[in-house]
Amino acid sequence: MFQKILIANRGEIALRVICACKELGIKTVAVYSEADRHSLHVRFADEAVCIGPAKSARSYLDIPSVISAAEITNVDAIHPGYGFLSENSNFAEVCETSGLTFIGPKPPVIRAMGFKQHAREAMDKAGIPILPGSAGVLESAEHGLETAAKIGYPVILKATAGGGGRGMRVVNEASELPGLLAQAQAEAGAAFSCPDVYIEKYIRKPRHIEFQILADHYGQVEVLGERECSIQRRHQKLIEESPSPRVTPELRQRITDSLKKAMREVGYTNAGTVEFLMDEDGSLYFIEVNARVQVEHPVTELVTGIDIVKAQIRIAAGEPLSSILTEPVTLRGHAIECRINAENPETFTPSAGKITGLNLPGGIGVRVDTWAYTDCVIPPYYDSLVAKLICYGSDRKEAITRSLRALDMFIVEGIHTSIPLHQRILSDPEFQAGDIDTNYIARFLAKK
Ligand code: ADP
User: What phi and psi values does residue 369 have, to the nearest 5 degrees?
Assistant: First the structure.
């Protein structure tokens, strides 16, 4: 097992990894930017190294600074968290050549999954259903028009290197395609230094459903059920839950069996998430793989009882899954996560600043993953996630009621947060009926 791990991240996920390390008896090294000097991850790590100024390009994304911090503190491994360098295959490779274990999949697998078109082809080959679309990236507008005519409008153009919803355009009719293709390519080129775009059938009212994977270095793959993440605003998830109200035990079993085979075939190791869209008929179609731990992993932890971050560390250290998961994976009860962001709940504008008063809810079935404390300052430089409220109930109804009572007891003073928005969504009969798709938020906000 590792003696010491460096956490190449900040905020709640850095703390989450520190918790796992403490429980495994592993020492930790925090890295931080000048803006995060007073952060809790710095306080709770055994050692801490300042790696640069506030701007993440010069600190959390600066590979030489992170590697130097690892070398001077003599760590064995690096946990990248999510975001920042977590899906950067070049970083994973530099770790390996520097004699450090990167806690994640192998660099060629990260690279292959990072190009969505490659991932799509690999999953198709392994028998996972994909949406009708182009074979390979689009060579020209004519190629796009031909493919779209075959699959039928509407279609969606997607950047193969994409992320965060950038480089995506919905095309409703042929006349729009050449112009939107040029826009998607330009946006992808600027954001990802790769202008390649492919085309896929567009689903009008999809549910976003994703499966959590753990895979060891000896070919054992386990699927920890699914999460429903259809409550999104501009492709950013706001509320996630497990299990999905729409996934039947038969569907879950079928996808689990085919994913075990597919992930083994692509040589996947460590934790990952396979994302699908569900159409109105209830069919699932693969969209992408996230080769890292996700923000919403706690809902899976609550319904399976499996500590995903500890499993990531143990897998990276070479332990077989058979010794990490001593019982068959079973799902029990229901869990819901609300992302508490520092933002105005009406306008969604960021609300950085000092938290002057804080009460975190507790009690049975309530988990809060946060880096906030009274008098801490939320800097404007990073994502706006301040806390995750994750509530467990014996069923979906209890998980909703418990989330509502915990939100009532969740007090953050000094900045605006998304708490009032969560209270309204969880009280909405449409949400309560489980009648949700990725357009839910747009509909809900228009309804007011
Ligand atoms: P990114 O990596 O940029 O987040 P994804 O491929 O994960 O992109 O897609 C993000 C979101 O975009 C999905 O959750 C869904 O809401 C929407 N989306 C993607 N592909 C389609 C599609 N074929 N039809 C309808 N919506 C889609």
Answer: -105, 110
